[in-house]
Specification:
Blueprint lengths: L1 E5 L5 H11 L3 E6 L12 E4 L13 E6 L5 H11 L3 E7 L36 H16 L3 E5 L2 E3 L7 H8 L4 E2 L7 E2 L1 E3 H14 L3 E4 L5 E2 H9 L8 E2 L24 H5 L7 H13 L10
Parallel strand pairs: 1-2, 1-4, 2-3, 4-5, 5-6, 6-11, 7-10, 8-13
Antiparallel strand pairs: 9-12
């Protein structure tokens, strides 16, 4: 299958490209050529910016996996160029799209955030992150109809990814595991390899619709126990540090965001690794000399 990956050389995108190549697909990358430019030397590259994607003006692909669609203006421009030259468009969205942050068990049909009146489509602020993802999902559906998927995910764990990297480092070096969230804080995450495989599956099989691509909801303390179990003598837990990783309020005002219903994704073929396997692989990766990237914000 001929696949176009927008992004593809950072964090989750690396896993997507690795999975696609492993499955024998013909991959083309479109990005600015600034992040890890030496990765995937055998893959065709189109160099350009999302805001002016002239390099995408020609060519046809069976599917697109959009890992870098953030600004509404940029996603709209790409959709206009690609609408009649791709088979299926899979968009990496976010669990930040939901209007409620406290309702447990939300499905993909739960109310979404509105677009603020007068908000710019070509400028990003954190306040616009969730609304931007909603607006991008909507415009892609308008352009591609049943030929589009939106994958809503939150914390993504694994090689090259920052989430829970501090736990991996602590376990690898016998240090204290720090977490500023409440011990009973609900949490959902997903291994980057599982998410990459799901993105690829939706694209290859042309499965439409939005999907909550998250693991089962648990608590931070239960998750910490699972991670600590992979080492014979793990360091202690510290629940008191400053919150520079999770940004989860202690008052419960964001608890529903990490209690989403993932039934639709599981039915569509999402498979999930056990927490212990995720933790063990991350620890080994760090012990092999790799350093988790810093949190994005």
């Amino acid at each position: 299958m001929k696949l176009l990956v927008l992004g593809g050389t950072k964090n989750l995108g690396r896993h997507v490209v690795e999975a696609a190549l492993r499955d024998g697909h013909d991959v083309t990358l479109f990005n600015r050529g600034r992040t890890n430019p030496s990765l995937f030397p055998s893959v065709r590259r189109l160099i350009g910016d999302r805001s002016a994607p002239d390099a995408l003006a020609t060519g046809e692909w069976d599917g697109v996996i959009d890992m870098s669609g953030l600004l509404v203006h940029d996603v709209r421009r790409g959709a206009e160029l690609l609408r009649d030259r791709v088979g299926h468009y899979t968009y990496m969205s976010s669990i930040a799209v939901y209007a409620s942050k406290i309702t447990p068990g939300m499905t993909e049909d739960a109310p979404l955030l509105p677009w603020p009146d007068g908000a710019p489509e070509d400028h990003f602020t954190m306040d616009l992150y969730g609304p931007s993802k909603v607006r991008c999902e909507s415009l892609l559906e308008a352009h591609f109809g049943e030929r589009t998927s939106a994958v809503r995910s939150g914390f993504v764990v694994g090689h090259y990814n920052p989430d829970f990297g501090n736990w991996g480092e602590a376990l690898a070096h016998g240090q204290t595991l720090e977490c500023a969230a409440r011990p009973d804080q609900p949490i959902q995450y997903i291994d980057a390899r599982d998410l990459a495989a799901f993105l690829l599956r939706l694209t290859v099989d042309r499965i439409p619709g939005p999907f909550n691509a998250v693991g089962p909801s648990t608590t931070m303390s239960t998750l910490a126990d699972a991670w600590r179990s992979v080492e014979p003598d793990p360091g202690p837990m510290d629940w008191s540090p400053a919150d520079d990783r999770f940004h989860l309020p202690h008052d419960g005002s964001n608890d529903g965001t990490f209690q989403l219903d993932n039934t639709r994704a599981l039915t569509a073929g999402l498979t999930l690794r056990a927490d212990e396997e995720i933790a063990r692989d991350y620890v080994v990766w760090v012990q092999d000399g790799n350093i988790p990237p810093p949190p994005p914000h």
